[in-house]
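Board work, copied verbatim: Phenylalanine--tRNA ligase beta subunit
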Amino acid sequence: MRVPVSWLRDYVAVPSDATAEDILADLVRVGFEEEDIHTFGVTGPVVVGTVLEFTPEAQSNGKTINWCQVDVGEAEPRGIVCGAHNFAVGDKVVVSLPGAMLPGPFPISARKTYGHLSDGMIASARELGMGEEHDGILRLATLGLDPAPGVDAIALLGLDDFAVEINVTPDRGYAFSMRGVAREYSHSTGATFTDPALALLERAPAVDVAGPTPATFPVLVDDQAPVRNRAGCSVFVTRVVRGVDASLPTPPWMISRLGLAGIRSISLVVDITNYVMWELGQPIHGYDLDTLSGGLVVRRAQPGEKLVTLDDQSRTLHAEDLLITDGSGPIGLAGVMGGAATEISTSTTSVLIEAANFDPTSIARTARRHKLPSEASKRFERGVDPRVAVAAAQRVVELLVELAGGTVDELGSVFDAAVAPVAIELPLDYSAKLVGVDYTAEEVRGSLVMIGATVEASDHDIAASDPRSAASDTGVITVTPPTWRPDLTDQATLAEEVARIVGYDRIPSVLPVAPPGRGLTRAQKLRRSVASALASAGSTEVLAYPFLSQRANDRFGSAVAGGVPAIRLANPMDSEAAWMRTTLLPGLLDIARRNLSRGLTDLALFEIGQVFLPSAGVRYGSGPLPFGAARPSVDALAELNAGIPPQPRHIAALYLGDSVAKAPGQPAIASGIADALAAAHQIAHSLAVQLRAATGEHQAFHPGRTAELWVGDRSVGFAGELLPAIADDLNLPRVVGLVELDLDALIELGAHDVTATPIASMPAATQDLSLVVPAGLAAGTLLETIREGAGALLEQVRLVDDYRGAGIDEGFKSLTFALRFRAPDRTLTAAEASEAKLAAVTLAADRFAATLRE
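↓ predict structure ↓
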C-alpha cells in the first residue's frame, strides 16, 4: 500500500517536518512492514512558462524542431529548442531550467543543439513522472490551469509530495485505504485523527430500496447460490449524478496523488472512483446510466453466460460467479471488474455510482478463476467495512459535482443486509496471560476503544468457573469490534490488538531453556553427520519439491510392475505434479538440468528428505478434521494418524561431469558409478554400518552398471548410472552417477556404540589371491566369503582385477583380490598369512566351486 503523505495529512496530524523515514518508523510500530519510499524525482528550478513565439526549423536528419522564446517570469525570455509540435503561441507550459533534475535521473543544463543554445527544456507529463502518456509537451490548459509565468511548477502540480509504501498483512484489509492508515498512524503517535466517513454519512441522503418513493433506483439482490452458506452481497448502494462533463481534465493534485499511490490517471470519472477507493477503502464502480437497461440485479451466473470485461476479454462465466446484471444480461463481475458495455466514456453525461459489499470468499474465487486480480478484488478479499459504502458513494457524488460539473439526482437506493459484529466477552486478565505482559485493566480497555471497538462491562463474572483467574484482575468486559475489523473474532485476536497498541516493545525477549539432558536425538545427530560428511567431500546439499508427476514416480520408484503406489494431492499447485514423491531422484535430476542450462557442467549434489510410500491397496485420508480450536479426541487422533502413509527419510546423491578436472599431467576423470558407490560407502561409514554392494536391477538404472546395496540381509537402496535413454530424454549427459538409500533404515541398523579402532603397531603381511569363478557370481559376494573364510587376521580385502579372456574358460572369470593380514600382538609369519588365505580359498571352493588361477 502506497501512502502519499499530503493525502495522509488530510485525516491525521502528521508533523510538517516528518520525514518519510519517520512516518515509516511510526507505522512499523503498529505492525506494518516497511517497503519503500516513492517520490516524483523532480527537483527545481521547474517553473511555468508562456510560449511567446517559435520558429519551425527543418533539419538534415528529416526532423523539424521548434526554436522557441519562452517567458519564465524573468527579465528576458529564454531560448529553448523543442521537438514537440502540440502547442501554440500563448500556451502555458512547464519549463525545466538548467540545474533541475527530472526522473531518471535526468539533469537539465544549457546545451548547444541544432545550432542553438537551448537554455532549458519544455517538459512532457511523462518526463515529469506524471504518467506514461507522451503525446507531446504538457500544456497546463489541459489540466484547467492558467498560472502566471515563473510560478513554481513543482508545487503547482504536486510534484513535491512523496509516498511511503508499507506491506499490509491479509488480516488487516482496512489498511488498504488512507482512512485506515491514518487511523493506525494516530494509534502509533497519538496524533489527532479525523474519520472522513463520519461527515460524509451526515451529508448522505437516506434512500431505502424497499421504500415507496418513485425516485428509488430498482436493485434486486437475488443470490441463489451462496458460497459457504453466506450471501454474496450484503450491501448495495446506488447514486446518480447527471450533467457530468466526462471530458474535463483530472486536476493535478488528484493526478499526483494517484500517481504516487501507483495508479495511472485514465479519465476524470474513473480517476474519481479510484481516488475514493484509495481514500476510504471502498471499491466503487461507475456505469454510464444511459447504457443500462432497466434496474440492476445481483445474482449468480447461469450456464453458458459470457461477459466482455473492461479489458476487452470475453469470459465464460462459472455458476459461482457473482454478477451485476441489467435487462440485457451480465454487465459486470461483482467486486472484480466491470463490463465493457456500460463503460464510462468521454461522452457520458449521466453516471450511476455503485458502492457495494461482497463476500470475500466469493470474490477471491472469481478473481482466481478468471485470473483477474484487481485493486477492488484485493480489498474485497480481505474484507471491506460494510458501513462505509454510503459514505463512499456520497464522496464520489460530491467530487463529480465539484470537478465534473454534475448535478445530484434524487435517484438512488440503499440495500443493507450486513450482519452486525458479534460481541466478545474478554476477561481483563486474558491478554496478560496470553502475551506474558502485565497489562493493566485500563490499558486493555483503552487499547480496544482506540481501535474503534465498543467496550462495556459484562453482566457477569466468569472468575468462579476459571480458577486461573484468581490471582489477578478478574473483571470481564464485552467488546464489540468495529465494522472495519472483521478479523477480530475471538479473545485471542483482541489480545493481539492490546499487545500491538500498547507496544511490542513491552513484550520481553525470553529464550526458552531446554530441559537438562535434552538436545538432538540420535537420529538428528546422525543425519547431520551424514550431511556434513558429503558436504565436506565436495557435494552440495539441495532441496527439491516433494511433488512429482505420476510418470516420474513410476519411472524412478522401486516398484517395477503395475506402477508405484503413491499419494495424490487433492488440490495440487501444479496439475502436472500432483503426486507425493516416492523417490528423491527426479528432484535431483531436475535440479541438475537447471544447473546444466546455466553452464555448470560438473555437479555433485545430494538431498536428505522424506518420501511417501503408501502400501498398495490401502486408502489413506485425514478423516474428519476437528473444528476450530477444539482438541480432537484420542480416537480422532488415532484415525488421523492412521490416514498418514509411511514417510521415511531417504538420502540421494547425483554425480555428473568430471569428478577430477583436467590439469597438467592429470587427465580428467569422469563421474559415474564409482562416485555413487563411494558416496554410499561414505554414508555407511558415517553411520557405522557395514554396507555390501551386489549386482542389482532398477528400471531407471543402466542394467550393467547397477548395484543393490545391502546391510546384512536387508536391501537399503541402489547405486549406479542413469539409464542412457532416460538421460537423453532429460537432456543430460550420457553418464550420470546416482545413489539413493533409506536413511532411516541405515540409522536403525547402525551401531549405537562405536569403538574406535586403535592404530596398528605391528607390521602387515600382504598377499594377492586370484580365483576363477562362474561369470554370474557377484564380486561382492565372493569378497564377503573371502573375508569370512580368512578369519580375524584379515584386516582388509579389495578387488583389484576382473579378467575374462585367454586362459579362462568361457562362462568363467578371474577375480583378483589384494589381502592384508595383521595380528595385534605379534609379527605375522608368511606361513600364518598363507594359512588364512587358504582357509578363504577352501570356503570359496565349497560355496562357489572357485579354483585358484594358475
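The domain at 197-416 is CATH 3.50.40.10 (Phenylalanyl-tRNA Synthetase; Chain B, domain 3).
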